[in-house]
Amino acid sequence: MHAALVAFLTDTIQVAPYTGQDGYGAPTYGAPVATPCRVEYRMQVFTNAQGQERVSRALLFFDGTVTLGIRDKLTLEDGTSPAIERLDLWKTPQGAPDHWEATI
């Protein structure tokens, strides 16, 4: 991500990586890491990974160097942990990771 755009990552959320399931089938997560991002609260219709139409609560932007997965747990600054409905990695014309967009 271009250095000028990194300056727009003014929010900080906790990202806990998905590690698997416990004996009861509940998801388990690693230690949360404070991660800079940009949170844009807006409602819009989108299609999730299963092809279903949903209405988003917000769009989150992360630097492309961050490691994210669709099952990771995000904890926003207000303490809520919405599920990631859609996760897109955008690349530069040369093929390097530029930034992530997470739809919640």
Can you walk me through this structure?
- It is a single chain.
- The chain has one helix and ten strands, in the order H-E-E-E-E-E-E-E-E-E-E.
- The chain has 104 residues and is mainly beta.
- The chain has a single domain, classed as Thrombin, subunit H.
- It has a six-stranded antiparallel β-sheet, with no helix packed on it.
- Strand 5 and strand 6 form a beta hairpin.
Strand content: over 45%
The name of the CATH topology is: Thrombin, subunit H
Number of self-contained structural domains = 1
Q: Using only CA atoms, what is the Rg?
A: 14 Å
Class from helix and strand fractions: mainly beta
Between the first and last Cα atoms, what is the distance in angstroms? 21 Å
Instruction: Describe the sheet with the most strands.
Output: 6 strands, antiparallel
Q: Can you list the strand order of the major beta sheet?
A: 8-1-4-7-10-9
| CATH class bucket | Mainly Beta
The oligomeric status of these chains comes to single chain
Count of alpha/pi helices: 1
Supply the CATH architecture.
Beta Barrel
Shape: globular
Strand/helix succession: HEEEEEEEEEE
